[in-house]
Specification:
The structure is a homotetramer. Chain A is α+β, with helices and mostly antiparallel strands. Chain A is 26% helix and 22% strand. Chain A is built from 8 helices and 17 strands. Chain A has a 5-stranded antiparallel beta sheet. In chain A, a hairpin with a 2-residue loop joins β13 and β14. In chain A, α4 (125-135) crosses α8. The first copy, chain A, is globular. Chain A starts with a strand and ends with a helix. β10 of chain C pairs antiparallel with β10 (233-238) of chain D, so a sheet runs across the interface.
Chain lengths: 349, 349, 349, 349
């Protein structure tokens, strides 16, 4: 997958190459996934109004039954940018916003598109969700779901986990009680012009055993790479993750027993990956999203001229970017698994 | 970098391609880094006796001054396996060890080299340390250091951090007090035939601003990929990492001020990476290593014939593989940074 | 570079990643190169009417002087398909056209977009010309020029070579006399509904010495790959090429002499590449284009139902696709050299 | 595949990654192919005495039947350099040999291993033959054969083509009459200390239809890349190649007819590749090898100090490197086809 486009350019999009032929694919289906990530759906996300309408530019054709399927050639998906509100970028143009890529871009390229963060904008992630919609179709029987498990310092109660709840609140939260608590917490954050971080969990079910590789191209390595490549992500863990550092080998072992004539595991601390290869269990990953850097409270910074100054970021920002990161995390998980599924089939038939 | 070799095959090694020419490189220097990872140096690591003597097979030549330097062509480094103790692999051969890759390998390939874990053995990481020794020379002025910051449930006191202490104890621990406490804790673990996990921190200083890319090929993405590719690693974080999820935007912001005529940061929660690009600050990453899966206490498992059974792993195993993971983590960090340094120079001159 | 799009889909285009920042780039300049390849410019090329108007979708921004320059982020270039004439594809839909990819596509994918050849259409090469326009700006001082040196069995007289003539005839022919002869020859071919092949020569001047690599990533290897990837190309040679097989070592040697204080070559049989690395001389490559497969004379073939039949291809086809292959060959040469220039700078500073 | 090693270093070798598991592979079989390329087998090749004994360092293991098979992990193959005759490199060290990479290496790297050409030595091709021996096993039912079809200006008579003859003469010549003529011709070349070029044809039979891709990753593109990457190769063509430029569309068309209930072609001017994808016919490629640059007759050159001088290359050189290029060409063809076979299986199942 290759993506292109800036926050305030004419359009963003991606090219998905190497997709198997013959998979049913139409714009409505991709749109369904994009709508989950779309801004402006509740008061807890940016009020930028983007329809995020996707257009399949290439790589599909009608099959013999008149349906539309992939042809095996590159699939280009495009999303026009619509709400590029004309505004004063004065402050952002010349001052380095703490936590943003302003300083590092300029150090690297000597030039940057300061409108809405340019290439570093989270708008780029819409392309990933679109590409992920294609990837979901590649592995037969696979389902990828995500949920928000922590907002600011407030985690869920895992005993309340109910996937059905995820669609019932604006946070993708699987714990109905926590969702209610988050609502008032986030209202406070939002009204204060502040922001908070979050932790997202992504679970892929129906992943066949055998995907990945023992060294380089490990499945967990590529999941870590894919999730860490999402804007604002600062940490990734698989299965028990950081918690396992404190455990003993006895506690951490996922014991096995024959069940219905097949080897099965009695726990899943490994998160579905052993030695870089999928075990057939659910693949479980979590990632941490830092608090949105754009906040109202003035912060110390410097400007391009080399003077000390302060900056306060107004504008239409998410108080917690972690919320909309849920469908993006799902998409990256789906892309990595689809890729490994095809590579495994190539090497091992 | 490409590596090859199994735990109990004749040799392991790697090929480093694309290295700049003219860098001084000899076997003694690489050996110095390998010796840090070498097994059998204290009672807290495996008692396998491997000299881990490295041989430069290609890619170096004498320069006009008679020194030995890289030529710019592929550098092959080899380490002969010496201590491949003949032993009874009966149990490992047919039973799936919990936490090991036995089951997933067989699912993927239908065959596996069961001697010492074969390709999935941590012995492969010696190749990485050797390659990392080359990578350290690529970025002028860069230093990469690592330290163990948690063993089992016991973390260090960061106020005691002293890099000089790292070489004074068998744990690469920067806190002399913690090191002492760990000694008795680990003796207990070792004598019980048990194991524990660990957390390692790697810090790269002297990294120029501008390395990385805004999307795909992000510096933090590649660091996450590199560290997660090390055996037994289950989590990676950059800068404040998972902790930042609980913070507010105000707390997380790394404010800036002009210092000695240059923009500088007042904190480093970002871990030296903003928007996927290095900021010139220290690049800071941590990774979690799960407890060694080979333990004496019997665990439930199944065998290849499909029968329920138990397994208890004897043999020469590290009670805490996280200790020897320190130089490996340093090597992976150095490799990723060297690669991005060359890519940045290619694109941006 | 990644391209996407089919002959009769809504649009074609490409994404150029890794381009250095700060290069002046606007649509008018890219358009200039595209206009050289554009169909319908003389009676010797297809009469399909495509404006081939290029649009820069991403990767550029105004610099401090108000000009438009590359930002270092992915550049997406798009060309809308306009003249997708509604027509009866009946014959092409079910019969395999000899010399076309109809049979092999169906064997590979089980589905194909039969409209105008779909993805295998030469229309895809417009994307390459657009990308090549970017690549031309990457290597300072480099010029890439191409010329048609043979049409059907009729070659040029190399003593008449005059680059200035290339723009004076519809064939990119550097020999004014040959151009005149080709005109009547090609009129005959065209009126007969037949077709002919061609040989194109591409010359890159101002290429610095040192680009390429001794093994894998050889400069000549990548030029061969790039040129052979153009539709209908069946052969590629560098410098003296196939002719050198008949020579002696004495004849083939490019002797050297100091000239103006610098080492210089007295001939260029090597075509500017020695051991996979550029020598600083002109890089010279030639490629052979087979005759257009779409001809009026009926040819024996089979259909999807498995019956013997005949096919005669009507429609708007180039009697000699080799003509419009000239700017495409230039573009591929420029892309390969730009890529190696950046890679060389990365490794060797 | 990655290779490493210099002509006069301790060893050369390669790492083959991504090979399917379960393929029978032992050293004796690889050795058989290497022996075809081995120097010193007749008076027409270099008299350097290298046993070229290959050692499998990794990636194989005994299977349940006790045979040795690939495990799916990286296969490292090594060949020790034995006959590194101590000699005076004085001339080669400081003078640039015309036709060699001496000048370009120094321009690129500022340093070069002048012993026997270092990394640019044709000795590197032994690694390719070894890797090719693995690749031959990947595509079921595929056979790759090569033959010398022209030596200096003397071509074969294609009517005499008999594959059985290829093993009956020291030239891999399929025409017994031509082989006899070449013997006296090459004796003359050899005694004069001169050299000549050659053309090699490689034919892969039993290649399934569908390998390759419509754009980028075209099968013919990758064959061209693979063959052009062999030392001293200056041209590559597929099927009718350069000759097709002179033909009409009617002559060039490979017509089709149903044969035994399956579509078949009546000719193979395409060389088995249509639109970048294999058609199921024999894949046919030819490549031109320039005359060996090392000749006895003095040639004008310059030295590192910048003075005009002359050079005459003594030593153990092949009068026609094209002869030993035959097994190398076969190996590269096998590697490209194996790679595409696995990629096709990955994408299309």
């Amino acid at each position: 997958m290759t993506t292109f486009g800036e926050s305030h350019g004419p359009a963003i999009g991606c090219v998905v190459d190497g997709c198997p032929p013959g998979l049913a694919l139409d714009e409505a289906e991709i749109q369904g996934w994009l709508d989950k990530r779309r801004p402006g759906q509740s008061r807890f996300t940016t009020q930028r109004r983007e329809p995020d309408a996707v257009r399949i530019v290439s790589g599909v054709f009608e099959d013999d039954e008149g349906g539309q399927v992939t042809t095996g050639t590159p699939i280009c998906l495009m999303i026009e940018n619509v709400d590029q509100r004309s505004k004063d970028y004065g402050d952002i143009k010349d001052k380095f916003r703490p936590g943003h890529a302003d300083f590092t871009y300029l150090e690297k390229y000597g030039i940057r598109d300061y409108r809405g963060g340019g290439r570093s904008s989270a708008r780029e992630t819409a392309s990933r969700v679109a590409a992920g919609a294609v990837a979901r179709k590649v592995v037969p029987g696979m389902t990828v779901r995500g949920a928000l498990v922590q907002v600011g310092p407030h985690g869920i109660d895992r005993d309340n986990w109910d996937w059905a709840e995820v669609g019932n609140n604006p946070f993708f939260c699987p714990d109905a009680e926590a969702a209610q608590a988050w609502e008032s917490y986030l209202d406070g954050v939002r009204k204060a012009g502040s922001s908070c971080g979050a932790i997202i969990e992504v679970v892929a079910s129906g992943v066949p055993a055998g995907l990945g590789a023992p060294v380089y191209g490990k499945l967990d390595q590529d999941i870590a790479s894919g999730l860490m490549s999402i804007n604002a992500v600062k940490g990734v863990e698989i299965g028990a993750g950081f918690a396992s550092a404190a455990w003993s080998g006895e506690e951490n072992a996922d014991e096995m027993r024959m069940t219905d004539g097949k080897p099965d595991f009695l726990s899943n601390h490994a998160g579905g990956v052993l030695g870089g290869i999928s075990s057939g269990q659910d693949v479980v990953a979590r990632f941490a999203v830092k608090p949105t850097s754009s906040i109202l409270t003035p912060r110390k910074t410097v400007d391009r001229a080399g003077d000390d100054t302060e900056i306060s970021t107004k504008g239409r920002h998410d108080p917690c970017v972690g919320i909309r990161a849920v469908p993006v995390g799902e998409a990256m998980m789906a892309l990595v698994l689809a890729d490994h599924y095809l590579r495994h089939r190539g090497q091992n038939g």
